[in-house]
Structure to design on (931 residues):
């Protein structure tokens, strides 16, 4: 079995984020996720610093590591200079690279993010590319968003955008050479590999769960991971 | 002719050292930068562990330091410090030149400036006070919040300015836990209707009778101990403080509404000590206190020959330890000055 | 509350903010939700303050949202950021000016990591060269767009047409300042005023006539949480965070909220709508809501720009209550006008000065 602590140490964020925890609890005290979820960042750091391989493996498969909102409020306060938020990021990265993320309901959601944000980055050069992403996927955006979606190009022109245009400006078309460089960066640095792993492990899980997983977002598995809530996550 | 020793600082360590030096036959000049002698003993109400009056200790020290062989100069600092042959030449802030055959540095400590722990709001929110502020309230006989009423719920925060990378003090100030327990009992005694919470990381009860005091606080006085470092304090529209802390033993984050928050401020090398280190070339350690040459058998010995340390200028200490340390410094001076006698 | 205590802290946390010759990198969230804000920002910088602000057409996202939802590995993000630096070097600029707070936090974090771990910086140099042939140097100055507006807040005040004052009562408007978590929580010394009592927005509000409110949950995250919003099943977390803030600020009767992060105003705006839909609960006076603004929008209003040129019509929580209070002249009919011919004229003149 792999030594998960050693693997975590290869992530620079882990090395920066963990300087021996004395369990004072300031992180959990201020953590928004700890308020609402069954989550305690102090416990996670405490487990990780024991270097216990079995317990770290459990974490990689758990729901716990997916509750953090990466606000970094913990980093501001820790008297040992730790950053539970950075440790969480290292755990999440390792969980995806080893495929354990599909063992938890929250972890499985990574495919949804990869197929939206991830694809937008590679295709357009933006993390968000929202023409067509309306209130059916995001009802909380409200009636004003329906109006924006219905009149997208005109609204953006009205407000000074250069939508899909050449040259600088809001939501411009980023030149193909630039997009090729981004793609190449993803290839060289392991970004594409990460995306592929998210896809492969998710496909296997979909088969296991007997759910259909095609490309894109309009399929059974995607809809399932996007909405499923087994109601065990929040504090009563 | 008597040898002349200069003692810098007339707090507990300085007064004890000066008194013992005088009894041993030395002439002593005792320098104090404030307008009165006594140092922090002037500020305390009752001392742990047995809660005896601090005035009794102060009287003992004043009596000891009242010898004819001791000249006390208050409102005086050292401006220049040079070695001359085998003795030291000190120039005071009033222009006086002192020849010292030996020097004892007893410049003591300052409390950590709690406003530096910004998230607790000291100096911003009205009802956030320090342990020193609370002692002053005890001396006046009234514990009140800004609106003049007595607080019902009081929170005590351990480790303010200690064990904390964020404020640059990695060390433990040793005495804050027992101070917190003492003050919790004193609050409960004066305000029987009150509810007192101590928010701690560890209970450092390492002195004689400290642990018993902790138990008394729980059993007799009903003080609540919650294991968690306070993360932040904020003020709501009614002037009450909202404290965020995790009860780490229960594994739950808490938001507690309290009337008054008492910060257990840690100890740092005093401002006077810092300045003295600069003009003398005396070494300070990583924790910025004066660095003695050996932890075990040289804790009074500095890097300058003939200059010795007494008391909290080297490390956090209680009154008992300070007095012992000062007596040991006098012994080092005696050994040092006897060397000239064949 | 003793404001003097805060002033001492504000004095301690000063920050180097460049004076001119800025290299602007855009925000993914702002471009999609607050395009008027970025347009207004450039107009203020160039036309009002006379600054040189350059935007490279080939710059991309920093991948911050992907990084913080953990789909993008740290080395990928670092190399994309290195490319951003390389493009800036290419056109001879040294002062990096991100529009997004997550970007700002990310650039600060990466520069700090490289400073402490030079081997990592070296590795990224090699990877960037291999992938793109590019080389880079570290920016001389890094300041967020709100830092720059803060720096020039007095110049803006001098040119102001309106103040943040209730014209009926003569009282300063009560303003909640909401700072993006990634502005100073990671590196307090890199934020004006530090992490506990940030001054970057307070300074603007005070200069422009308003009064800042302190309330218990001031420092609480708005709840974006990256993956906690992006995936529908997690959105309860996001709305719970914002709701906690609204409940905490409501007793202080704020007139408006100002923000510097691109995501926060979107959430604080939309979640008010959702809380009303779900629970029938409304905030603000008589349930009118608490309008939420980007700092660019507030600067623009103070300078007298038309609210609909600033993009306030894209907010779900109506901004009109604040416009009324400030005595700003605006046309109700024009709110949802798109590109009628006369509107194009107005827009052209707005953009071109």
């Amino acid at each position: 079995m792999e030594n998960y602590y050693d693997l975590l140490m290869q992530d620079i964020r882990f090395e920066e984020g963990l300087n021996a925890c004395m369990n004072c609890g300031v992180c959990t005290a201020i953590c928004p996720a700890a308020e609402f979820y069954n989550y305690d960042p102090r416990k996670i750091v405490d487990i990780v610093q024991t270097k216990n391989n079995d317990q770290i493996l459990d974490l990689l498969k758990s729901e716990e590591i997916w509750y953090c909102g990466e606000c970094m409020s913990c980093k501001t306060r820790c008297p040992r200079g730790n950053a539970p938020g950075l440790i969480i990021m290292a755990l999440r990265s390792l969980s995806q690279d080893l495929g354990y993320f599909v063992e938890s309901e929250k972890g499985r959601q990574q495919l949804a993010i990869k197929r939206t944000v991830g694809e937008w980055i590679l295709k357009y050069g933006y993390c968000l590319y929202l023409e067509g992403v309306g209130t059916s996927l995001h009802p909380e955006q409200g009636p004003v968003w329906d109006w924006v979606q219905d009149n997208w190009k005109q609204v953006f022109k009205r407000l000074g955008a250069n939508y899909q245009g050449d040259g600088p400006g809001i939501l411009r078309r980023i030149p193909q050479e630039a997009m090729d460089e981004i793609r190449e960066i993803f290839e060289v640095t392991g970004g594409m590999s990460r995306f592929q792993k998210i896809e492969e492990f998710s496909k296997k899980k979909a088969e296991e769960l007997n759910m259909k997983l095609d490309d894109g977002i309009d399929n059974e598995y995607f809809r399932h991971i996007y909405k499923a809530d087994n109601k065990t996550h929040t504090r009563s | 002719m008597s040898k002349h020793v200069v003692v810098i600082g007339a707090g507990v360590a300085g007064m004890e050292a000066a008194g013992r030096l005088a009894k041993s036959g030395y002439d002593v000049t005792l320098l104090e930068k404030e307008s009165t002698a006594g140092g922090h003993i002037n500020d305390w109400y009752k001392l742990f562990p047995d809660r005896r009056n601090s005035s009794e200790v102060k009287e003992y020290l004043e009596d000891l330091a009242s010898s004819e062989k001791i000249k006390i100069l208050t409102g005086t600092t050292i401006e220049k410090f040079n070695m001359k042959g085998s003795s030291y030449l000190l120039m005071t802030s009033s222009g006086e030149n002192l020849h010292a055959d030996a020097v004892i540095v007893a410049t003591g400590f300052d409390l950590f400036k709690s406003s530096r722990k910004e998230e607790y709001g000291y100096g911003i929110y009205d009802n956030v006070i320090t342990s020193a502020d609370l002692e002053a309230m005890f001396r006046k006989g009234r514990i009140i919040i800004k609106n003049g009423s007595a607080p019902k719920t009081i929170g005590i925060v351990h480790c303010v300015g200690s064990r904390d990378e964020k404020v640059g003090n990695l060390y433990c100030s040793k005495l804050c836990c027992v101070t917190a327990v003492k003050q919790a009992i004193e609050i409960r005694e004066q305000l029987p209707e009150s509810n007192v919470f101590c928010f701690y990381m560890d209970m450092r009860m390492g002195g004689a009778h400290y642990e018993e005091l902790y138990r008394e606080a729980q059993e007799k006085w009903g003080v609540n101990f919650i294991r968690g470092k306070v993360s932040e304090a904020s003020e709501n529209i009614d002037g009450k403080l909202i404290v965020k802390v995790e009860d780490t033993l229960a594994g739950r984050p808490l938001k507690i509404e309290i009337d008054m928050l008492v910060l257990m401020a840690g100890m740092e090398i005093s401002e006077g000590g810092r300045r003295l280190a600069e003009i003398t070339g005396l070494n300070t350690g990583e924790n910025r206190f004066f660095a003695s040459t050996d932890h075990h058998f040289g804790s009074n010995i500095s890097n300058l020959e003939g200059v010795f340390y007494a008391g909290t200028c080297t490390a956090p200490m209680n009154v008992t330890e300070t007095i012992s340390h000062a007596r040991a410094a006098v012994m080092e001076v005696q050994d040092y000055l006897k060397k000239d006698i064949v | 509350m003793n404001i003097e205590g805060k002033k001492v802290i504000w004095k301690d946390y000063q920050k180097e903010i460049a004076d001119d010759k800025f290299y602007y990198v855009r925000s993914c969230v702002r471009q999609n939700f607050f395009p008027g804000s970025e347009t207004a920002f450039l107009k203020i910088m160039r036309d009002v303050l006379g600054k040189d602000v350059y935007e490279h057409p080939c710059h991309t996202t920093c991948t911050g949202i992907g990084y913080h939802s953990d789909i993008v590995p740290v080395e990928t993000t670092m190399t994309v950021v290195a490319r951003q630096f390389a493009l800036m070097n290419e056109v001879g600029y040294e002062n990096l000016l991100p529009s997004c707070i997550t970007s700002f936090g990310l650039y600060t974090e990466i520069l700090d990591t490289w400073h402490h771990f030079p081997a990592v910086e070296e590795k990224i140099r090699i990877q960037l060269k291999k992938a793109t042939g590019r080389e880079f140097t570290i920016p001389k100055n890094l300041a967020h767009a709100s830092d720059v507006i803060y720096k020039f807040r007095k110049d803006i005040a001098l040119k102001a047409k309106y103040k943040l004052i209730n014209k009926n009562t003569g009282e300063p408007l009560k303003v909640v300042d909401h700072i993006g978590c990634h502005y100073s929580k990671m590196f307090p010394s890199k934020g004006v005023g530090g992490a506990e009592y940030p001054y970057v927005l307070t300074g603007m509000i005070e200069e422009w006539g308003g009064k800042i409110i302190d309330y218990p949950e001031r420092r609480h995250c708005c709840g974006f949480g990256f993956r906690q919003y992006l995936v529908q099943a997690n959105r309860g977390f996001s709305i719970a965070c914002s709701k906690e803030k609204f409940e905490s600020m409501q007793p202080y009767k704020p007139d408006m909220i100002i923000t510097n992060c691109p995501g926060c105003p979107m959430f604080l705006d939309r979640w008010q709508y959702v809380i009303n839909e779900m629970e029938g609960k409304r905030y603000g006076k008589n349930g009118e809501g608490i309008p939420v603004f980007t700092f660019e929008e507030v600067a623009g209003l103070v300078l007298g720009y038309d609210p609909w040129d600033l993009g306030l019509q894209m907010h779900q929580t109506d901004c009109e209550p604040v416009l009324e209070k400030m005595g700003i002249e605006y046309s109700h009919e024009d709110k949802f006008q798109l590109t009628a011919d006369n509107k194009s004229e107005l827009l052209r003149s707005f953009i071109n000065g």
Q: What stands out?
A: Strands of chain C lie at 22-25, 53-54, 95-98, 141-142, 174-178, 211-212, 256-259, 292-294. Chain C is about 50% helix and 5% strand. Residues 74-90 of chain C form the longest helix (17 residues). The first strand of chain C starts at residue 22 and ends at 25.
